[in-house]
Amino acid sequence: MNMLPAETWTSDFKRVVEAIRYIDAHRLDQPGLDQVAAAVNLSPFHFQRLFTRWAGVSPKRYLGFLTLAHARRMLDGSASILDAALDAGLSGPSRLHDLFVSFEAVTPGEAKRQGADLIIRYGVHPSPFGPCLLGLTDRGVCRLTFLDADADACDEAAQADLARHWPAAALIPAEAETAPYVRRLFLGRNGDDTPLRLHIRGTNFQIKVWEALLNLPQGKLITYSDLARAVGHPRAARAVGNAMNANPVAFCIPCHSVIPVLRGTLDFGDYATGPDRRRAIIAWDAARAEGVAPPAAP
Description:
By secondary structure, this protein is an alpha/beta fold. It folds into three domains: 6-66 and 268-289; 68-98 and 203-267, Orthogonal Bundle (Arc Repressor Mutant, subunit A), CATH 1.10.10.10; 107-201, Double Stranded RNA Binding Domain (2-Layer Sandwich). It has helices at residues 6-25, 33-39, 44-55, 59-65, 68-75, 78-88, 95-99, 108-113, 154-165, 175-187, 204-214, 224-230, 237-246, 275-289; strands at residues 101-105, 119-125, 132-137, 140-146, 170-173, 196-200, 222-223, 258-259, 261-262, 265-266. It has a four-stranded mixed β-sheet, with helices on both faces. α1 crosses α14 (275-289) and α2 (33-39) crosses α3. It is globular.
């Protein structure tokens, strides 16, 4: 596999974010390749190459995944698909199947101790969506989040994030141990069927919501109200929102796939790490769901 330097992947994502913002601001005009390339200060040729290297698909196809019409198509039928998955286990390809995820909830006693006697090995790595922090215990991945800090400040931001969630845990830098998990998440199994284990804590309701999201087919979207109905609490859309905010492992549990609908309009802005990253991840998922292989990465 061809590997790209970490700084290249990070730079690519910044260009992609610029393109997403430009297209969102000019979506009614349906800008072409030349216009978007000019907006990010690249020639059409170099922009085409950069985008294809980053996303695995052409800019035109990828940017099509970002349109409102495509998002609405992805919403169609999601609730019934999720209902079927909850009723009968897995119903077709899903994130749970594709990642082969299993998770072990933290016990109430462990949660109360706030990580006392727990060792968390962590690393900061480049990802398709900017630098990410991955925390790992002996029982699985306990933290995955995206960092917006400058490169020089990423490690400090990572330690602060982990200390906030696990204040009594011992934190040990271990990028060599966490790197294989990051590659697995963003590049696929590559023949490895070992379960990707998660070690997470949450209320019974939060865990139920997260399990439901793991059963959502990759590339599909769902609304807060449909997700609340699917887990048997049709009036608990606000509680579903709280479960999204409490998700300790971004991307693994696809909270980015839950889209608020306000007065009939889709809202991409309600996401912990920002609307640009949400749009990028949704389009990335859509490309993967169509069978596009993940691009080469560090």
